[in-house]
Known about the structure:
Layout: E1 2-6, H1 10-21, E2 37-39, E3 45-49, H2 55-60, E4 66-70, H3 71-77, E5 82-87, E6 93-100, H4 105-110, E7 115-119, H5 122-132, E8 136-140, H6 147-151, E9 156-161, H7 165-169, E10 172-181, E11 183-188, H8 189-194, H9 196-213
Parallel strand pairs: 1-3, 1-4, 7-8, 7-9
Antiparallel strand pairs: 2-3, 4-11, 5-11, 6-9, 6-10
Helix pairs in contact: 1-9
Amino acid sequence: xxxxxxxxxxxxxxxxxxxxxxxxxxxxxxxxxxxxxxxxxxxxxxxxxxxxxxxxxxxxxxxxxxxxxxxxxxxxxxxxxxxxxxxxxxxxxxxxxxxxxxxxxxxxxxxxxxxxxxxxxxxxxxxxxxxxxxxxxxxxxxxxxxxxxxxxxxxxxxxxxxxxxxxxxxxxxxxxxxxxxxxxxxxxxxxxxxxxxxxxxxxxxxxxxxxxxx
Length: 214
């Protein structure tokens, strides 16, 4: 059995055409089913639904043979011990710094003042500001980042931005995009050796589908 770890939502939906290119179709809709393990049209392939942040862990420790994880997840939670053969170029967005409309971010950074930054991506944020030589106090949040500057909890946030419409709706502005994000195929290294004859064609089919889209 080959087990593929996916998270619900955008990554799942954008992975389906890649699976189709490999001759694999998921036979159940995860939004309509409560099942966490989904069958496919191939008896030797199944999909397990996990949190996006758990995909690398499942793959690394053998709970899944391969998976699809965002670059943000791999950088934040670690992709050590994982073979990352392919940028699937799906679920694209960017990591950015955003502030209230009336906060002078450029001046605060140039003056070397210490700023408070709310984010769930503390490792990515820490590395970014350290590279810039900016002193920050990081505040770990798990949701509703946009509230932090509006309530005075933080001066800025670091978060994923796709269209920017959520920021605008909350009177925030993107002041510093600094990392392009897309999703990667990750493979368990032991599985790549033990199940090579079955995994390699899947990986090659994914690569061909990505190349065909340009």
